[in-house]
């Protein structure tokens, strides 16, 4: 499986607590922060839940 770069582009203020914890689990903090992750089914599911808050790039 390949790697993906996930970047936070929107705030989690006024978002569901579950979405906030998913963002934390992806290793993202402030807007503009990014993390390179292995593209596993678990990570893909987390990204899908917060796709409106992040930008994803294939590496």
Summarize the SSE layout with pairings.
Layout lengths: L2 E6 L8 H9 L8 E5 L2 H9 L4 E5 L1
Antiparallel strand pairs: 1-2, 1-3
Please, could you describe this protein's structure?
The protein has 59 residues and is of the alpha+beta class. It has one domain: Ribosomal protein L30/L7 (Ribosomal Protein L30, Chain: A, 2-Layer Sandwich), CATH 3.30.1390.20. It is built from 2 helices and 3 strands, in the order βαβαβ. It has helices spanning 17-25, 41-49; strands spanning 3-8, 34-38, 54-58. The chain has a 3-stranded antiparallel sheet with strand order 2-1-3, with no helix packed on it. The longest helix has 9 residues, at 17-25. It starts with a strand and ends with a strand. The model has no long low-confidence stretch (mean pLDDT 96).
Describe the structure using short key phrases:
59 residues, 3-stranded antiparallel beta sheet, 27% strand, single chain, alpha+beta, 3 strands, Ribosomal Protein L30, Chain: A
Look at the helices and sheets and give the structural class. Answer: alpha+beta
> What is the radius of gyration computed over CA atoms, rounded to a whole number of angstroms?
10 Å
Series of H and E elements = EHEHE
Q: Count the domains.
A: 1
- The main sheet orders its strands as 2-1-3
CATH topology: Ribosomal Protein L30, Chain: A
Give the uncertain stretches in residue-range form: none
């Amino acid at each position: 499986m390949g790697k993906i770069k996930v970047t936070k582009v929107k705030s989690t203020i006024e978002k569901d607590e579950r979405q906030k914890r998913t963002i934390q689990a992806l290793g993202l903090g402030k807007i503009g922060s990014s993390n390179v992750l292995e593209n596993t089914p678990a990570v893909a599911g987390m990204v899908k839940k917060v796709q409106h808050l992040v930008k994803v790039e294939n590496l």
